[in-house]
């Protein structure tokens, strides 16, 4: 007779071993019974899925162990709310962090399968756009690495941002079908489903002690269902959870309508729900796009908060203890509606009085600001917000009244100050300021570099900083060295281990030991050989994708990031045009061979950004086909920038372009990735470039251009770009060539408006910084011609970038903000 066991007595599965023979046997078993394929007819994709499932099994052992320990200790958890998680491919990441890379390679080799071949087939998860989402992914990995219990919350986008293709040099947006064949890393959690409402109205009812209760009765409802992906920390000591929400209709089909012949109308609710999680950042140039964006943000925030409160109460914790057991980090303003939603859940669902709920709320939330650009500090038209979220609009007004009355009575704020801190912007059409809501509803507000944090205090949040002078703090961004050194650059990692041992694998700060080898000729030769191999790999990729041949002995000068005017890809292209002219005009000079490489996506509705991509491609077509250049200059724009492409481009870079207008880049993380992998940075004193200069030494970075203070002063004093342009022969000639159609003979006026913008206002200081930038590029040439000097500087960059590990950043968040 089989004995019935209680749940507490149920046996735990035995941890799986990592012997290559056992792994090979398990891969065959998964191939057979998990996928239904005979090894003799299995495709590379079948082998990939089978291998992922075997690696996943070992992750699950650690995942359950981590979860059990957190529950047993009733430990405080960190919840990271982000609209983006740009996690990239996961198999190599998981194998490396579990220490399984060599064993899996041997296991697959014994089966006649190459690991590198199948690993390259794994799709990039299309869950992010750029730095914001990649930072969230690095943070999730570091949270597990430094042993902090955490959940990441976001949206399970079916198509994500978009797949970028080029049609005659123009960006074309196509759906990114990363989920078309399923995702073996995720687990659907049907039990973690929550109802999300929109629209309707608010009614009143009598509460327990005759107090008035507010009841929101939405006119629309959808179901949010959780999909969990395990996130493995270094050495596999902890596995945390990335929980992404998918939207489903309450009634998937209106059967009466279907039977009546209205087949399209019968699926109306289903289509409406699925639209919520189909695309990242729907174009918001129209009212429908704005509404969908707000719906997305509320959808994932409400589901996440309901999930957090359910878990908190399930462990027997009172709501009053929420700040002691829960820390919720808002990654930018996208999740800011969480402040109003938590207030609604506490007051309306759980019966907490308003003042107590507010005390719980602001002590639970913390907010990371990522930008000083006004358009990136979200705001919503009051009519839209009130129609879509009527109860939340009431909460916003109630919170606003509480804050403004306190500011007026107890802080003696003036009328202009009151207007600036208000949650409602009344300077034009009334709008709800989400940045102000996130600030007021959080006990901690952090910037992401030292410069950015100080500028926050002086600019966008000056009045709120006066109201709450102890809330703003700095947490300079970081990157995970596991993905951005050990995985993307295994040859360099092996060289470092040979030179300084393995300590840096567990503590990136130990990379400083490499300083002793910076001027060692033998080590420089090995370092250069690794860089050459990485450049050859990128050259092969460009040749296979684009049919363009690159010379790996040339300087690889790379700018990869979201296409935006403040990031100044345009400055780079204009200087390229000027260099093109100089090479042709002065063939007698010893020009340094350069390959200018660009990659990045432009928002679909951002006209000038898309025009900059077209200009880069038009310049490339002319430069690359001009025999008088003699191969000394090539220009390449690689389409569809994503994490996997970055993992090839970053290790291959000789020169890292970090040239944003000073005061406009909050931090940057691409700058850190390039320098860690032995590239020299050319950049402005913007974002984390300032701290990078301090860490690597000003002699090991090339700085140009105006400072943030000088940019502000020039704007305030009425800077005249036309006079600057006319005073620079190279700049004037380059702008004239672009504007007159030299690079666009099929449409000579194509770039005239873009160039006129520089003549008329030049908000991003392209003309003002041009001469300084061009001189800095010639300084780079001079360094390049002295290999000992070049490699001495780039080796010191690798040696001194350990401080920029996201492990350090997360530890600072925890010690200063979360205290988990």
TrEMBL record:
GO BP: any one term: glycogen catabolic process
GO CC annotation, single: cytoplasm
Keywords: Allosteric enzyme, Carbohydrate metabolism, Cytoplasm, Glycosyltransferase, Pyridoxal phosphate, Transferase
GO molecular function: glycogen phosphorylase activity; pyridoxal phosphate binding
Principal location listed in the UniProt entry: cytoplasm
Enzyme nomenclature, EC number: 2.4.1.1
Family membership noted in the UniProt record: Belongs to the glycogen phosphorylase family.
Protein name listed in UniProt: Alpha-1,4 glucan phosphorylase
Organism: Rhizobium daejeonense
